[in-house]
Amino acid sequence: MANPIKSEYFIFKGSVLERMVASGTKSVTYEQLNRFAHKILPEQTKKVYELMTKKIIVRDASGEVINNPFAYRRVAIKNNASNWGSCSSQRNMNLNMHLVRLPEALMNYVIAHELCHLVYFDHSKQFHAIMNAVTDGREKALERALKKATPDI
Question: Is the residue at 79 inside a domain?
């Protein structure tokens, strides 16, 4: 069954999706996009999670190391119209299926952003400190690039 809003999606140059489809393909159906997203996004979340747990040590207010601060329960793939992702206090992550239409660096940035929200559920200085550590100080640049690259979702 086709999506009632759009039945085809343009493949953005340099996107993760572009690498998944046959050369010369100009668009994919909603079903194809959904299938790719359900394959790629959980795998990519695991990769970003593993990289972050090796790279970042998070401490609580008393200086004690927090074990497994980026641990999540599950990843749900959704067709959101207004956000790239979210997470819940139950440590569940929701990712927009359209993330696969972005370049891998921006997709990873969004995934890392949501994983960091599992430590700080706000956009505090501490949250941004972790994001900057994860992105090697490139958080603002990646955020700007994401805004420029955002396809119609």
Answer: yes
